[in-house]
Design a protein that fits this description.
Two copies of one chain form a homodimer. By secondary structure, chain A is of the alpha+beta class. Helix content of chain A is 39%, strand content 23%. Chain A contains seven helices and eleven strands. Chain A has a four-stranded antiparallel sheet with strand order 1-8-3-6. Chain A has a four-stranded antiparallel sheet with strand order 2-7-4-5. In chain A, a hairpin with a 2-residue loop joins strand 10 and strand 11. Chain A starts with 28 loop residues before the first helix and ends with a helix. In chain A, 42% of the residues are buried. The N terminus of chain A is likely disordered. The interface between A and B is large, with 39 and 39 residues. Chain A binds a DNA duplex through helix 6.
DNA sequence: CGCCAGTTTGACCAAGATCAACGCAAGTGG
DNA sequence: CCACTTGCGTTGATCTTGGTCAAACTGGCG
């Protein structure tokens, strides 16, 4: 589970409960979050820091407070696959009992809250609405994974890049300018492409006036309609 | 959610509760299933029959009693993507509120049980262990979707075919012979390949003596070690 | 027997990977 | 302050995998 609870934006928020963006509609869920807060541990990681590793035992799950986390896996021959990027408000590492099959790493400076599974289960006993909260997050995550499956299985390089940019614009600032915390290589491993193809597709969008790239990390959206058309689906 | 509750095998079972294969460890979960049975409707579909369509409202989820179901989506330009095959004992269509984003179709002759979401929610109130059952199924499903994401993003055609065959051997008979209910075209759309590439990869495995193909639907596993090596991961 | 749908195989093509060079900004050390 | 390095990012030339197009094969069935 690596997806949003809602459209939460905790980027500048030192405590996860100072804002109420978790998509809480039903009463009782806020209680659940207050209780969650009570079992949380705050951790920080610097660039490329390892939050957990493949094959580690699963006894915690996490929520991003600030920064960007990548969920990834390394194949024997060096190929890498990034399953997910997690931003502020996203939770990750809800993996079911056993061992991790992916690792979690800090893309930039990251602060996360860590919740022990055992304590969470106890909270669920007391407050079933928390269970619903977590279940809905899992379902959202599942829908997301299926969307990526479609992207990787049936979309061309330029469609993938367009979809990626739209995803980032929607999940992050939703403003005219987008600052990407991850490298081209991260993007490539997320989209099942090579660095070079990512560059070329971005350059192509730039040539067509759909985006501008003032510097490698920064994308300016100049023609959203064209970008959406490029995804088609 | 389209994955197993466990290693259940209901293929020859007219009622889902005549056998206890749902991976039930904790007591209380059997109760939950008896209760589930009470709210189920039995439906059958013939080849290519539509169980539900994209954009249909979500008010039910399903469990396969017998036959094979494909969960799929059609893009505007005719490209098709199959997210999942579901066999006896697998549940599918647990999609979170709103509209379906995929359709469900019968690959062959299919019998399913249908459970209304509203009735299920009531059961969950009475029997929280059902919630855990459904949550674990969702998590298993999620892990599965991530595995497919890796396959589609970073594996070659022959690796995909090898992984597919191993998946089918494990999920179905686990015997020397495997009968595939789905067409080459279904396999292609599941693996993000074309029919021709599926054929060529299968022929290549046949040439290498890893499998034999007595007829197009039937695969004989001759060298499991070689097949596992072909996936590498 | 001939048709039909699904499968297999072959010849060719193109999207994207690979290999290689170059650009560019941020350190680093003299 | 200025060479020099280092790590990304970008671009170009070439190659490979898998897609496209086309033809042949197969078993079932009217």
């Amino acid at each position: 589970m690596h997806r949003h609870f809602g459209n939460a934006d905790y980027r500048s928020s030192p405590t996860i409960l100072e804002r109420d963006g978790l998509g809480i509609a039903q009463s009782g869920q806020l209680d659940a979050l207050v209780m969650l807060e009570s079992i949380a541990t705050r951790l920080s990681f610097s660039r490329d820091g390892e939050i957990y590793d493949e094959d580690d035992p699963v006894y915690c799950w996490y929520m991003v407070v600030s920064g960007t986390v990548r969920i990834c896996k390394l194949l024997a021959d060096g190929r890498r696959h990034i399953a997910e990027f997690c931003f502020a408000g996203d939770c990750f590492g809800v993996d079911g009992p056993g061992k991790r099959s992916y690792s979690a790493e800090a893309v930039d400076e990251v602060i996360v809250m860590r919740y022990r599974q055992s304590a969470t289960d106890r909270l669920i006993e007391e407050n079933p609405s928390l269970a619903r909260l977590l279940r809905d997050a899992a379902l959202r995550d599942l829908a997301n994974a299926h969307a990526r499956t479609l992207l990787l299985g049936r979309m061309t390089a330029s469609e993938r890049i367009a979809a990626f940019l739209l995803e980032m614009f929607d999940r992050r600032d939703r403003a005219r300018f987008l600052d990407l915390p991850m490298s081209r290589s991260d993007i490539a491993d997320y989209l099942g492409l090579t660095i070079e193809t990512v560059c070329r597709s971005l350059s192509s969008l730039k040539r067509d006036g759909v985006i501008a790239i003032p510097n490698p990390q920064r994308i300016e959206l100049r023609d959203r309609v064209a970008l959406e058309a490029a995804v088609e689906a």
